[in-house]
Amino acid sequence: MDYEELSELPEWLRDRILEHLTRPAMDAVQDLLQTFVEDACSLDEVRQLMRSVARGQPMFLPLQLEALESILAEPQPEGTLRWLVEVDCNWGIDDDPTDRGAAVVLRQIADILRDAIEEAEAARR
Question: Organism's domain of life (predicted)?
Answer without folding.
Answer: Bacteria
